[in-house]
Amino acid sequence: MTTYTGVLLRGVGAGGIAGLLAGLFGLVVVEVPIRAALAVEEARPAVESGGHDHGEMFGRGTQMVGGVLGAVIVGLAIGALFATALAGSRRWFVGRPPFTRSVTLGAAVFGAAALLPAVKYPANPPAVGNQDTVDYRTMLYLGVIAAGLVVVYGSSYLASRLTHLAGPVRSTVVALAAIAGVAVILLAFPASPDPIPADMPSEVLWQFRLASLGETAILWLGLGVVFGLLTDPSVRQSTARAQALAA
């Protein structure tokens, strides 16, 4: 079954699995620095937060379960988008097996949608960040993701236009163009508006940042691997049947 519907269903299934794995990673690993950061925040005098009430609408247990469910839902959604993007980019991966195409696309999207923004605007735990700058920071973060995806699309398009060149030359040109695009993004976007509070332990900060990056890596790379495993056998069988009929 290699119709678009079949590809879409496999994408949704792969996204759900990758989202569940990422959510469980967040539950076990990311939760540790989150609790440490919340302890720092709760230890601050009320006057430092302008008298704001730190009371939560939902307890940590509910938030943790909601985080796993949210990761699964996000995985289902991006799985559908991933399958659609892969189906529409077949001309960029001519001659590559489905598994390789899927893993390559997953790695490329991880680089643009997770690694690049993590370099420019590293994730911060709950006790870091001014509430007044949330909208501005969100806009900057989404802007870097959009610009990174443009670099991925542009690199793929450039590769498709340079098929007359030898493989090593084409790969070098595309890599240099991608590096130049990433450098422009890192230089063009402004720095994060929020400083790191002095009472935030550096080990907690970096543990949270690395754990958060690990969670997104599991989501995107897991999606690429699982989708490739689900798609590769059916495509190979369809190709073999077509070749047998043509013989």
Automatic annotation (TrEMBL):
Listed transmembrane segments: 7-30, 64-87, 99-119, 139-159, 171-190, 210-231
Keyword annotations: Membrane, Transmembrane, Transmembrane helix
Name the record gives this protein: Putative cobalt transporter subunit CbtA
UniProt organism field: Saccharothrix variisporea
